[in-house]
Amino acid sequence: MPEDNLENTGELENDDIMEPEPSPDQINLWSELENSTNQEILEREDLFAGLPQDIKTMLTSETTSIKIISIGQKYGLTKNQILILARFIKDIFLDPDEDVEIPILINSLSSNLNIELEKAKTIFLEINNEILIPSLRNVPDIPDIETPLERPVPAVSSTNINNNIIDLKNPPK
Amino acid sequence: MNNISNQKTKDLYGLGDYNNNQIKAFAELFDAENISPNIVYDRRPDAASSPEQYIRSMDIETIPYIIPDTFAGNIGMELMQNLNIKQLEKIGAESDAYLKQTIKITLRRALQQPLSLQIKDNLLRIQKYIQYSPAWQ
To answer: Which residues pair with A167 in a beta bridge?
Structure first.
């Protein structure tokens, strides 16, 4: 509709349009958000958003947090090391590589936590047994076509560990 | 305010750009037309008549629609105190990076305030969950 017609009918006038006026608290919040939210955070969040629902549920549940704390304490990790462990578990699933080799993951864990390789392997196996397998064993055989799995499910089974490979294309059923 | 880059925004009508009183006025327009204003309050519960009660009663399917501006200022800290773990699990799974960052910022601010033992316990539980949850890293 031409602008002059709008004026004539009085249906839409400038006075009717509410101009955005964010409060000083909102402006402060967004200033802090822009300072604390970098590109890496946004990219990791995009990758996370594309994960299958059961993996997101596992990574999000309070039970998983509690198990991570419990495993960390059991192996004498510091608070900072346990935080790194939590991030490491997320990174397993954000890795763009389709096949993730178990020894590489264990090496990475050992390096990130600054612990011996054997201890990293023990912790990794416990994460696998206590967190990954119980959460991801009900992976459907055929992905829902409406919500295709943008990332294959990298559930880690004992069999796969023996083969030293997590087959991300053919997760264990 | 809505300056979300590549994250999917759930900011219906750009509700993040308006202050609390403007959102209340906007919601009243829905009311006047006999349309439930909850579509507005679900995104900005800070504008509801009883914000704390409203956010407590939000179901987990709706909770990811909250806009970060909800948690601005003192009212944001009060709303933070009324979130529960189930709601935060859903935010962790479904919300964009900005809302998650907002929750972390607001939680940190809330924990610096004088709090009752019960509220502090709830916030410390939330803090522990968020700190060690892979999804929130």
So the answer is: A99
Paired tokens of B112: 């610096």
Cross-chain residue pair A82–B132, CB shorter than 8 Å: yes
Task: Scan for tokens 């054997």, then name that residue.
Answer: A118
ipTM: 0.88
Measured between CA atoms, how close is A6 to chain B, in angstroms? 21
Hey, is A49 helix, strand or coil? helix
Distance, CA of B104 to chain centre: 12
- Beta carbons of A87 and B6 less than 8 Å apart: no
Return the domain boundaries, chain B.
12-136
Look up the pTM and report it.
0.80
Phi first, then psi: give them for residue A10, nearest 5 degrees.
75, 15
Nearest-CA distance from B67 to chain A in Å?
11
Contact A37 B98 (CB under 8 A): yes
Q: Which residues of A touch B127 (CB under 8 A)?
A: none
Backbone phi, psi, residue A99, to 5°: -110, 120
- A42, B7 Cβ separation under 8 angstroms: yes
**Integer Cα distance of A59 and B137 in angstroms:** 10
Task: Quick: pLDDT tens for A116-171.
Answer: 999 999 999 999 999 988 877 543 332 332 333 333 334 443 334 444 544 443 44
Distance CA(B76)–CA(B46), nearest Å, equals 7
